Amino acid sequence: xxxxxxxxxxxxxxxxxxxxxxxxxxxxxxxxxxxxxxxxxxxxxxxxxxxxxxxxxxxxxxxxxxxxxxxxxxxxxxxxxxxxxxxxxxxxxxxxxxxxxxxxxxxxx
Length: 109
Hints:
Number of helices: 4
Number of strands: 0
Structural class: mainly alpha
Strand content: under 5%
Distance between the termini: 67 Å
Largest sheet: none
Oligomer: single chain
């Protein structure tokens, strides 16, 4: 008979820091809300702007993805150079505030 380990025993070697676990869970909830809200806003913009909504959504997405692409690697290199997790927590909080300001910007479209 084979000596099979239980799933709990197999995963016991994958210990995760509590801070990282909390950041990952919080980030999952933030991104879920972000994508859910963006899909609702896209439907609203199509009704409000008609055919011009595609251009507005594409421009906004291009600005967001371009900015994120340019800034993500330098910021992640800086975060990896520090040994503490405090800078990562502050960066997550700052990112949440910046994301909330983009929601306020939809009112002016």
